[in-house]
Amino acid sequence: YIAEHSSNNYAPIKLVGILATTTTSPPKDLHNHHCDDQDTHGNERYSQHIANSCSADGILYEPWRVPPSREAVERAILHANERLDVHGILVFYPV
Fold first, then answer.
1. How far apart are the C-alpha atoms of 29 and 16, rounded to whole Å?
2. Cα→Cα distances 49→22, 23, 32, 67, Å
3. pLDDT at 23
4. Ramachandran category for residue 51: left, alpha or beta (phi over 0 → left; psi -120 to 50 → alpha)
5. Whole-angstrom Cα distance, residue 77 to residue 71?
6. CA 43 to chain centre
7. Higher-scoring residue by pLDDT: 8, 10
8. Distance of CA 27 to the CA centre of its chain
9. Which H or E run contains 5?
10. pTM of the predicted model, to two decimals?
11. With contact defined as beta carbons under 8 Å apart, do 22 and 38 qualify?
């Protein structure tokens, strides 16, 4: 379905991952990245695995890093729901 969707001049399928984190950018080296203050629960590493899988399947994946508060996550979800180019949302826990 994804290949057919892409070949019919449709916009690519986009999945958004919402990560509640204290940083605004991913760690520089995820291969040697250990769970630390930036990524206490491995969210960055898991997000990168999802990005790799999506890329292999022709799906755009966009991680959105937001402050670690319920309100920030809710705003990001509402924003993603309003965007016509977003077809799916993942929320990484803990929030």
1. 21
2. 20, 19, 14, 22
3. 73
4. alpha
5. 10
6. 10
7. 10
8. 14
9. helix 2-7
10. 0.76
11. yes
Q: Which helix (H) or strand (E) holds 30?
A: none
For tokens 């965007």, the residue is: 83
Query: Encoding tokens for residue 86?
Result: 């977003």
Top-confidence residue, 79 or 11:
79
Q: Which residues contact 49 (CB under 8 A, 6 or more apart)?
A: none
Whether the predicted pLDDT of 81 surpasses 70: yes
Nearest to 48 by CA among 86, 67, 56: 56
Q: How far apart are CA 70 and CA 72, in angstroms?
A: 6
More confident residue, 56 or 34: 56
- The alpha carbon of residue 41 and the mean position of all alpha carbons in its chain are separated, in whole angstroms, by 15
pLDDT above 60 for 28: no
Q: Which residue has the tokens 């449709």?
A: 10
